[in-house]
Structure formats: C-alpha cells, structure tokens
C-alpha cells in the first residue's frame, strides 16, 4: 500500500480518521493525502450578509488543511500531501482518489444526533456506494492500536477475490494474535444453497495463511445478527466485501444499514469487488 486518502471537514470525527490513517501510513510506509471538498455558500433568504470570495474561502481552507498536515507529519513522521477542491464531498473524494492513485479511502463517522450528523453520514454512505477502491470508516473516539480480532461478514454467495484478500492482509499486518472471524448470519431454519456452500469451499484455501474460524449465526435480520456478534466479541474492525448486484449492495441500499454504519462503534472496512 503506497497511498491513503482521507476526507476531512475539520470536525472531530474527521480528525480522528486522519489520525487513524496516519498510523496506517506509518505502519506501511505510505503517503497520506488530506482532502477537503466544500461547496460555495448560497443565499437562503433575503437577509443581507457578507459574501466571502472564492479566493478567500480557498485560502482559508488551504490554511486549515495545511495546519492539520503539519501536525500529522510531526506526530507520525510521514509524508502528508493536501488537496482542497470545490464540489460535492463524496464525488470529489472518489474522483481525487482516482487522480492520486490512492489504495484506500478513510472517512470519519459519528452517531446521528442532529441534522449535521446526518449530512456527514450521508456523505460517507455515498462514498461507500460510489468508490471502486477500499473504504475504511472510522467512528469518533477510535484510536488505532492494531487489529487482533477481525469480523468478516459474508453470505458466501461471492468469494473474496485476491485483490480484496491482499488488501485485508496489508491492513491487518502481522499481529501475533490475529484472528479472522468469518461471520455468516442466516434466518432461523434456513439452509445454505449450493452456491453458498461452493463459495465457502472456495474461500477456505484463500484464508489458509490467516488464522480464522467460521461463525454461523441465526437471526431474522442480518444487521441485528451482526450487531449481536459484535457485542459478544470485541472486534477491532468489521469487514464487508462490496459485490455488484449482491447481498452487500442490497444491505447497503436501505436506511436500516445506514443506521448500522452510524451506530457502529468499531471501524468498518468495505473492500470493493467491482470496477
């Protein structure tokens, strides 16, 4: 891994995400790029107000990003680049990730308590839907301390490809206590299909070099089943693989899953198995 891009809006969650990403960069010898994307203010009423020029906004934002970059450079001893652009944040993040050749996008997240939180949440959800490279979502207050327990949620209908597996290996590192929990949630009484069984068989040799175990759970809701597992097992990250027209896409297309992301207390890594 050579490059990580972090979306920042200078909020506490995005700063926590930048710290987490910087730690990953130090571990992997990667370059960190801080991106701040913003929209130009528009009048919403007839009340007079002072219009700030585009040049002033750009200068102010570049100053803030620069200060954050210097702080991360000094703390972690890594190379930090900065980008400030005008546009919809999610679109700019995905576009700039491609332009900079980023291997990973990191974004912050916090629980929904007000309208601003919902906006931040919707931006991160949009990045998850649109990105073709892995996205790591970091909840507020999370500090990087290595990955020991990893939860990989799958329905076995699609086998993790080598690109996803290699990225997972890079991010997981070589922690001596590493454990990958392959979590499959199905409805009570449901029997795995032939395709699911074949997917599990294909997956097993791919995970041979990673200490792992399979966890079979029954629950009417995949979301609630995963939540209960994460409550019982202290995991450092939840991993999902995004397949086009798959269980993941269906899971992440509804508001119930956005709520799951909002409420998550551990990082969420979405590996992209789509172009």
Plain-language structure description:
By secondary structure, the protein is of the alpha/beta class. The chain has 2 domains: 3-139, HUPs (Rossmann fold); 149-272, HUPs (Rossmann fold). Helices cover 43% and strands 23% of the residues. It contains 9 helices and 10 strands. The chain has helices spanning 12-28, 54-76, 89-100, 115-130, 162-172, 194-206, 222-232, 247-252, 255-263, and strands at residues 3-7, 31-38, 80-86, 104-109, 135-139, 149-153, 179-186, 212-218, 237-242, 268-272. It has a 10-stranded mixed β-sheet, sandwiched between helices. Helix 6 links the parallel strand 7 (179-186) and strand 8. It is elongated and about 60 Å long. The two termini are 19 Å apart.
Q: Can you describe this structure in just a few lines?
A:
It contains 9 helices and 10 strands.
Features:
single chain; 10-stranded mixed beta sheet; alpha/beta; Rossmann fold; elongated; 9 helices; 275 residues
The pLDDT mean sits at: 85
Placed side by side, the strands forming the largest sheet appear as: 3-2-1-4-5-10-9-6-7-8
Number of helical segments with 4 or more residues = 9
* Morphology call: elongated
β-strand percent reads 15-25%
Instruction: State the low-pLDDT regions, or none.
Output: 112-120, 254-259
Domains (count): 2
> From the 3D coordinates, which CATH architecture of the largest domain would you assign?
3-Layer(aba) Sandwich
Biggest β-sheet description: 10 strands, mixed
> Structural class of the secondary elements?
alpha/beta
Topology order in helix (H) and strand (E) letters: EHEHEHEHEEHEHEHEHHE
Q: Report the helical percentage.
A: 40-55%
Q: If you compute it from the alpha carbons, what radius of gyration comes out, rounded to the nearest whole angstrom?
A: 20 Å
For CATH, the homologous superfamily of the largest domain is named as HUPs
Distance between the termini: 19 Å
- The CATH topology name of the largest domain reads Rossmann fold
Topology, number of strands:
10
Give the CATH class of the largest domain. Answer: Alpha Beta
């Amino acid at each position: 891994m050579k490059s990580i891009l972090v979306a920042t809006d200078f909020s506490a969650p995005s700063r926590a995400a930048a710290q987490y990403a910087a730690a990953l960069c130090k571990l992997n010898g990667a370059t960190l790029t801080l991106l701040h994307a913003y929209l130009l203010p528009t009048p919403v009423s007839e009340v007079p107000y002072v219009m700030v020029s585009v040049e002033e906004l750009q200068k102010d934002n570049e100053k803030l990003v620069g200060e954050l970059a210097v702080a991360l450079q000094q703390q972690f001893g890594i190379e930090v680049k900065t980008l400030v652009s005008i546009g919809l944040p999610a679109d700019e993040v995905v576009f700039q990730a491609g332009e900079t050749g980023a291997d990973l996008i990191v974004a912050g997240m916090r629980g929904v308590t007000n309208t601003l939180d919902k906006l931040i949440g919707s931006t991160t959800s949009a990045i998850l839907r649109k990105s073709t490279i892995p996205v790591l979502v970091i909840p507020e207050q999370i500090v990087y301390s290595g990955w020991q327990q990893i939860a990989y949620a799958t329905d076995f209908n699609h086998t993790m490809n080598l690109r996803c597996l290699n990225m997972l290996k890079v991010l997981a590192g070589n922690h001596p206590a590493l454990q990958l929990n392959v979590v499959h949630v199905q409805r009570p009484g449901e029997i795995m299909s032939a395709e699911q069984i074949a997917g599990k068989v294909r997956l097993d040799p791919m995970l041979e070099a990673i200490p792992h175990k399979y966890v079979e759970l029954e629950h009417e809701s995949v979301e609630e089943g995963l939540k209960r597992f994460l409550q019982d097992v202290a995991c450092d990250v939840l991993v999902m693989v995004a397949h086009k027209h798959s269980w993941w896409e269906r899971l992440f297309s509804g508001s119930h899953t956005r709520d799951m992301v909002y409420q998550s207390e551990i990082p969420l890594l979405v590996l992209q198995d789509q172009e």
